[in-house]
Amino acid sequence: MSTRYDRIVEDNAWCPGCGNFSILAHLKEALDEMGLDPLKTVVVSGIGQAAKTPQYMSVHMFNGLHGRALPVAQGVKVSNPSLTVIAEGGDGDMYGEGGNHFMSAIRRNADIINIVHNNMVYGLTKGQASPTSQRGFKTPVQTEGVHVEPFNPIATAISLDASLVIRTFSGNKEHCKAMLKIAIEHKGYVLIDIFQPCVTFNKTNTFKWFKENVYVLPSDYNPEDKVKAFEKSLESHPFPIGVIYKSPQKGVLEDALRDESQIGSKPLYLHEVDFQRLNAEMDKYI
Fold first, then answer.
1. pTM for this entry
2. Which pLDDT value is given to residue 10?
3. Cα distances (Å, whole numbers) of residue 118 to 5, 78, 234, 245, 277
4. C-alpha span between 23 and 173 (Å, rounded)
5. Sheet containing 190-195: which strands, arranged edge to edge?
6. Pairing of strands 164-169, 239-246
7. CA-based, 20 to 30 A from 221: which of 4, 47, 61, 86?
8. Which residues of the chain have pLDDT under 70?
């Protein structure tokens, strides 16, 4: 399916069969079907295979440092709240190197979508265990298998009262697209953790494994019940997928900063900067 978000690239660095291809396709289709403007869409990423996603999309993009996508995404949203801002990365990038930024972003509640490609391994750096690798998972580094408890991003997000917490699976196209649309429509920070296979460096958590180890939450499930949501976040083998938690509506970062600074409704990027005055102030410290 062709979309306005397609970008012609001569080469793609992902391995054939990688789950990143599905996530890229689902995201482009979701954005296009929602009628959003590529010129008003910004995808920010860090380092990693998943973080290459914006390079294959026709959008504004910022590819920065490992684990540092979220602070940049928040800055973009604060500067111009009219933009659709997505922070994209893998489980190592977002939960490992970017773990502190992950928790801070939840607490600040900027209106951004945090998409995490969760394949339970470091793909770019050739197969080391990631924060979400399961116990017993063997790698060239963890030769006897991972012995620590895997990081639980869903439980962490719920405990910090994230505005919206979602999990889905790249192999379930309709579910994944539907969850992406819900995430994009929501006002406030959204974590959407997407299970996806790494066909080269993770021979355990394969497409078949994920398909057999997830189940869709029933239609009568209430994501606004925090206690129940936390219980669901602790389930595994199979893992629930869907809207797991939705916090009561609360203010977003960009609105709070605008009110505090008394800059009114005018976006920050439209404010004129008096460079002469700024230079004069800086000269005092030279």
1. 0.92
2. 81
3. 23, 27, 16, 18, 47
4. 9
5. 60-63, 41-45, 84-90, 113-118, 190-195, 164-169, 239-246, 214-216
6. antiparallel
7. 86
8. 259-265
pLDDT value at residue 186? 97
Q: Reduce the secondary structure of the chain to three states and give it as a string.
A: CCCCCECCCCCCCCCCCCHHHHHHHHHHHHHHHCCCCHHHEEEEECCCCHHHHHHHECCEEEECCCCCHHHHHHHHHHHCCCCEEEEEEEHHHHHHHCHHHHHHHHHHCCCCEEEEEECCCCCCCCCCCCCCCCCCCCCCCCCCCCCCCCCCHHHHHHHCCCCEEEEEECCCHHHHHHHHHHHHHCCCCEEEEEECCCCCCCCCCCHHHHHHCEEECCCCCCCCCHHHHHHHHCCCCCEEEEEEEECCCCCCHHHHHHHHHCCCCCCHHHCCCCHHHHHHHHHCCC
Which structure tokens are listed for 21?
């291809």
* pLDDT at residue number 264: 58
pLDDT digits (tens, 9 = 90+) for 112-168: 999 999 999 998 888 899 999 999 999 888 999 899 999 999 999 999 999 999 999
- The residue written with tokens 């502190």 in the block is 100
Q: For position 103, what pLDDT does the model report?
A: 97
